[in-house]
Amino acid sequence: MLILAGFEEGEIEKIRAVDEVIPVSQEHLDWKVERIIEEKPIGDYRRIQCTRTVIMHSIPNEKIREVMREIRNLVKEHIIFATTTPTSLNWTLGNLISELEEEDAYFRGKR
Length: 111
Known about the structure:
Elements: E1 2-5, H1 9-15, E2 21-23, H2 33-39, E3 52-56, H3 61-74, E4 79-83, H4 93-107
Parallel strand pairs: 1-2, 3-4
Antiparallel strand pairs: 1-3
């Protein structure tokens, strides 16, 4: 399962071929990641203004690189990839995305 934030609708449609997707909108930023996974919210998708982010849940370790490669082949923009952890499942989506963007900026030398 892939939680997608910051993607355009056309990009989301392409990624659906890779795995089950949950595209999240602004109203989900206050939800815990675990709730998003459990409820799989659907509705009017409105792109969150953030770096394109893929949060992988229940993807076997041996398949993670393959999923990342497939998505990178479909979307030619910078993407942050992460996997869920017991800790991140209890974070709000907004806090998790913020933390991932900070880490990404650090590792890309932008901080």
